[in-house]
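Friendly challenge for the regulars: who can give me the structure tokens for this chain first? No prize, just bragging rights.
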Amino acid sequence: MSRIHTPFTALLLSAALWILPGCGRSASDGAPYAETIFWEEDSAWGDYADDGVVEEEAIETIEDYPASDSPSTDSSGAVSADTVRQLSPEPGPLKRRGGNGRIPLRQIGPLREVFNDSNHFQLEHARRLGITPISDLASYYRNSRPLVKVETNPHYRVDELKHSYPYLVPEAAKLLDDIGRTFQDSLYARGGGRYRVIVTSVLRTPNTVRRLRRVNVNATKESTHQYATTFDITYTRFEPLDGHDNTSYEDMKNLLGEVLYDLRRQGRCMVKFERKTPCFHITVAE
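First reply, four minutes later:
Bragging rights claimed.
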């Protein structure tokens, strides 16, 4: 039987085609992402495959920035600390939360907007402070820069690493320790108990980057992890240390954001808020 298309049915078909692409959208494809917003009511957590393989979003270039918004760089080509401070205004005062494991927090803004340092500019710091990318750990000894082995300690836990090795340049290792210690001190002072953050990715070699790219199409070939200047901290998992495990993980994620915000304002790091595999992607800057 042949189909008859009247103007009315054509209008209905057009409306359906316009509506359908918006159905079933998730945070990864541009829909509202309540977890990244401060001071909104908590929503249900999304389904994440947090298996220790940390995604890096597709590499960004200078063209990703409008001319008026392009960060200023210093003589080495890296984004200057003054520019970072200008882009990061003073955060708001502490805001009290309700009970049931809630803690007071400062308002700094949506995490995915606040922490959006391009891979292009993180690479400038990584190349300036990091090692020459190595093919394996044995070739590390031919590098002029020393490496520090990062291991689970009272301030942070190193997760099972599937695509990286637990080594960082000294500046990055110090930054990681400061993040873990400051997070713990701030959390305890606000009545949140004792937890430690979890590191999910550290030094990668070109070989591990290639293996990662086979299972993760969003991982960038020019990874800052290859310079031992970069590490990832998950924001969906925190390890309790004293049997106290009723503090809101959403609040702890936002508190970790506060810690990184302050360190970024000091010019010590650049940060990318990763959403597809949830973590803070952090590169040391001094």
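Strands lie at 94-95, 105-106, 148-149, 156-158, 167-168, 195-201, 230-234, 239-240, 269-274, 279-284. The longest helix spans residues 170-189. Your move, everyone else.
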